[in-house]
Amino acid sequence: MVKGPKFYITTPIYYVNARPHIGHAYTTLACDAVARRKRMLGYDTFFLTGTDEHGQKIERSATAAGKTPQQFANEVSSLFRALFDRMNITYDDFIRTTETKHQRGAQELWKRIQEKGHIYKGTYTGQYCVYDELYVDAAGPGAPCPECGRPTETVSEENYYFKLSAFADKLLNYYQQHPEFIRPETRRNEVIAFVKSGLRDLSISRSTFKWGIPVPGDPKHVMYVWLDALSNYCTAIGLGAAEKAAQEKFARFWPADVHMIGKEIIRFHCVYWPAFLMAADLPLPKTVIAHGWLLFEESKMSKSRGNIVRAETVIDVLGNDALRYFLLREIVFGQDGAFSFDALVQRYNSDLANGLGNLASRTLTMINRYFDGAVPQPSFLGARKQTDDAIKDQAQAVISEFARLFDEYQFSRALEAAWSLVGSVNKYLVEEEPWVIAEKIVAEKEGEQNKARLAAILYTAAEALRIVTALAHPVMPEATAKIWNQLGLGEITKFNLADLKQQMEQERTTPAPAATQSSTTSAATPASAGQGTPPGQPVAPASPGPTGAAPAPKAAAPDGKITIDDFLKVELLVGQVKAAEKVKGADRLLRLEVDIGTEVRQVVAGIALAYELEPLIGRKVVLVANLAPRKLRGIESNGMILAASVGEEGKPVLAGFLEDVPVGTKLK
Ligand code: MSP
Fold it and tell me: Is any ligand 1 atom within 6 A of the Cβ of residue 567?
């Protein structure tokens, strides 16, 4: 398979001094949403998270817990991992700084910096904040840490120093030439001001405790935990590895595209880290994006305040999707934001239950009830109204708006845009009253006209639902995967998001519906909503549906025609029906077993009203063999049988041959 462009995103690696809380969950799920969207857009994505396990802080926490640091780290690290697994985080690697591959890689980075002459030995006497693992310059004994306010400790020891002061100008130049390196703008300004105020050389080893990675050639020292930790972004993908595959991975994925972090660790990521990389002659990450803090109501979460919120609490009650949606919708990314249970419940009710939940359940229930579970064709018989077009136009606008905002990390506004469509479609359904039209059909007054109108409304709603579902998938992976499947579209992770826009555009340029036209259509699915096509549109380019709205594949000529290459993408095979039975609860559907030479395929076809079961057995049919599977009434359909759709009722007539044709023969 051809790989798309690469995309490498990381979370900070989390300290294992305490179990994870909702703040750690926040960064991780924001990265997960970005990674999922990139994958859906075809990027060869690598998403890294993990735990930061060395240093004095962890050593002390372990001692306090009566454990060895390794034992302690194992336990807490596994809590992070279990939480992320529970949260459905699609990390590609979970790095632990106690892993051999990391230790080897961190030492390799050290050696490269050292070989280039940027490390020297000295002694450090000054203040140190163990909580932040931060050297606090120009402060007297007992002074509070400028970051966390805790008292600093006086450290006096032999250390190795990194010549950070030599990199000030280079860093400033880099910031200037790469404005996208630090985001948002306010953080960038802070970093620039910090560097301009002067950089002192940085102590990068400690020699008064043991819990760390030994300094190459001088194991009395362990590496400063921030140098150790930052190097994880390189070591996880192969820096320092001897194996060829790991080296290739490093060459492919480094530099990272995004390091996502909380605002409190910006200095480490935007000053120290780029300086280390420059010193080692390695390329710099493209963007460091810092978000704000999640506060509990108005205050910072802390053990002593007893106000730490756990992600599990929310997941237990409302589920994963609710937690993910809430955090990305409620908090303006980049700014501090308050977590409150009231706001969570309110959002859950308004946006999820009454919003998307209501839209999905109404639309899918009506499609099941009135159209045997298959999304109906877009309107014909002139049943289309201006209100339908208004929804379509809004949906079109939302696709671009969502992309623009999400790719700018404005998750909240992107979701707001998508949910404005949810609101409009729910309102549209209330106003158009499809359930009233359905009752009229039952009463058999103006049946055809009403049927067409009902189809138009449900097609419009289903199409908008499909769009919101695809856009929201990276944020709410579980619910959207279910809705997608219920729409008959198969597996959502296989859908290429880039096609979303295109399909809308194609639909607009297709000719107006023709009421009485009878043409070949797909009978396998009454209104075949194949994967990768909008609901209601036939899939096989050879068979435009009654609306004439067959989607033109990507390289369509401007006049709506397709090229021979496009046509050849459709694999048409001669098959023979081996078994046929009715599908329970669906008047129009049959489950067929069709022999195509190499295998017997199960296909669900909308031909029950036109064919008896018995005569079908042994009959040769034409099968679209390379359609992605989809489920109809819970039965997987692996392909589509071609049939003409005759008259206004669209009566299916199976395509066949006058001569005898062997099973498995290709049509072209
Ligand atoms: N181990 C370092 C990072 C090393 S990265 C090379 C560290 N770990 S941490 O456990 O303290 O995690 C800090 C990160 O967790 C923050 O930068 C942020 O991403 C996330 N958050 C922790 N608490 C948070 C909030 N209350 N609100 C938002 N994010 C929070 O620093």
Answer: no
Within 10 Å of residue 345's Cβ, how many Cβ atoms?
Answer: 14
* Closest approach atom of ligand 1 to CA 11: 19
The per-residue pLDDT for range 197-217, each reduced to its tens digit, is 999 999 999 999 999 999 999
Phi, psi of 343 (to 5 degrees): -65, -35
Q: What percent of the chain has pLDDT over 90?
A: 70
Provide the 3-class DSSP secondary structure of residue 70.
helix
Ligand 1 contact, 52 CB (< 6 A): yes
- Residue 203 Cβ contacting ligand 1 at under 6 Å: no
What is the Cα 322 distance to its own chain's centre? 15
What distance in Å separates the CA atoms of residue 424 and residue 413, rounded to the nearest whole number?
A: 17
> What is the residue-averaged pLDDT of the chain?
88
Residue 656: the pLDDT is 87
- The ligand 1 atom at the shortest distance from the C-alpha of residue 233 is 6
The answer to whether the pTM exceeds 0.85 is no
Residue 77: closest CA among 97, 91, 48: 97
Token look-up 């990521």 returns 269
DSSP 357: I
Q: Please say whether the dihedral angle defined by the alpha carbons of residues 650, 654, 658 and 661, taken in this order, is positive or negative.
A: positive
What's the pLDDT score for residue 271? 98
Q: Which of 7, 131, 24 is nearest to 82 (CA)?
A: 24
**How far, in Å, is the centroid of ligand 1 from the Cα of 47?**
17
pLDDT for res 297: 75
Instruction: Count the residues in the chain.
Output: 668
Q: Which atom of ligand 1 is nearest the CA belonging to 230?
A: 6
Overall average pLDDT of the 427-451 stretch: 87
